[in-house]
Amino acid sequence: MFYRECGVRHTTYAADRALAVIPFERVMLGVLIAAAAAAPWLVPDLFLVSYLTPWLIWTAAILGLNLLMGWAGQIHLGYGAVMAVGAYSAVHLARAGAPFVLAVIGGGLAAAVVGSLFGLPAMRVRGLYLAMSTLALQGIVDWLLVQVPAISGGAQATLLVPRPDFLGLPLATDAARYWTALAFAVLVALFVANVRRTDVGRALIALREKDYAAAVIGINVFYYKALAFFVSSFIGGMSGAVLAFMYYRAVTPEQYGLHVSIMAVAMVIVGGLGSIIGSFLGAGFILLAPIWIEHGLRQLAAALSINISPSTLAHMPLVIYGALITGFLLLEPLGLAKLYDNVRNYLRVWPFGYTKK
Amino acid sequence: MLQQKSVRQLATQGVWPVAAAPGAAPATAGVSTGRVILDCASLVRRFGGLTAVDRVSVKLREGEILAVIGPNGSGKTTLINLITGFYQPQAGCIVYDGRDITRLRPHAIARLGVARTFQNLALFSGMSVLDNILLGRHIHMRSNLFSTALYWWWGVHEEERHRRQVEEIIDLLQLEPVRHEPVELLPIGVRRRVELARALAARPRLLVLDEPMAGMNQEEKEYMARFILDARDELGASVLLVEHHMDVVMDISDRVVVLNYGVQIAEGPPQAIMKDPAVIAAYLGERRFDGSRH
User: Measured between CB atoms, does A9 come within 8 Å of chain B?
Assistant: First the structure.
């Protein structure tokens, strides 16, 4: 009922392409962004540091992967490696004296080059075969990180991240780190939203749907596949770097291992392929649900004064979490974004549901 | 139905250039005398032991509607795939607008002004009608990652400029009511129209239509025939048409080429083709001495 489109009459083509067409959505977006900006005063520090900051950075990373998987339709099982390349490059740049922003961009570029190289098989293969070749990227990068001390300092080593600053302002407090993550996520989300509504995004979807039909309307399929890998790896590399600077504050090889790549794919699929809001929801769900489930179980056990053994407590959240993912995907294979969309579509015409086809 | 805005009106507003000069206006009966825009010389394409296209030579003049007909499996679609670059011929060459395009890849051929539609539709599902047609403008759009990133200051102007052109095509093909619908929800007749709109949005000089009326009812066929004539007369496209509906072929084509088992068995104006004994034999079979049809 809030989403009503009554009275929305576009008079320009640009207005028709606005990011939020329905007035209520514009208000909601404004409130959300204001609340997000004021979060350091609204939520406890622990919440800010261990939930919100990683969620935002992961969202940016997932937006990059979604561009590749959801829109260009290319599967990628080595996204963690791409993030690792970005993180290690950025940290080494920063240790060599580069300012934070340049280090992050440099990390993104390094990841983009490596990621595009491993996107080359996509010119020839697709589906499972592409999954295998991107998995190779993960294997090679994992191996290099452990075996080449010049990059990682060795298997057991932890590389400390220099204290970042932005245009001379030190980003030392938790709030500053959070705001950096927020600004980064918003920038990436805006970029991806713009890709979606312009020619580049349409071309990516075209090659996902029918590559021969894309070719026949003049889309250079090879070029756009390479572009998708480049952009997605660039975003992934920058996200990996921001994650290292703003959340971990140190880099070790296992932060970006295979399990991270799998988690990233899960975030994209649970959130919804090819959806911006889905990237937010998917990253949030996969990252935070296990924590909250464990928390809830603990409180439940305390309230009912049942004694749950530590090992049960460690495993129960995983069971519930797995069941939740399965349940959500059975309910709506297109992910959380589609669930949101269903509610939105219902509200748009409420209470005149019969007007919908 | 909605009132059809005259395309000539659009042309005089300067939105669409009238490509064909009055002198070169296509003659509905008889043979066009415009210059040759497409020249296929003795094309051969084999698949293993099967020769799908066997020394076929086709010339298409500017402003002409050329129909290619033939029984199932006679090589019509293969011929189209050769012209649009999906297959490479084993022999022969294709010259489009004075340029050899035999070895070019499909997207490069599209950039030269060749648009096509597919027999079993190749719209992009997951996108609206509008986005599909906007993709037809892809070859004319100057957009890159930077114009995309700086959408509000840069990309929006390019998007708007092409949206205007796309809206004219939507107007021409009467697709206004479904503009924002996802293509996968539309009935097949409308989908074929959207695909034609996407092809026309590229403002092609050569339009290749692969059975644009398959699966349509009589009314939809009549609309489609009108749109094809509009594409030729108002937008100045030359048309290569593969079609099974003989009534349509007879009504709108200037010239007909007949293929059978990959071989070109006849060529000429539609009325003459209908009486050609070789064509009748290919379509109906010929009477043998034992009285059986073969």
Answer: no
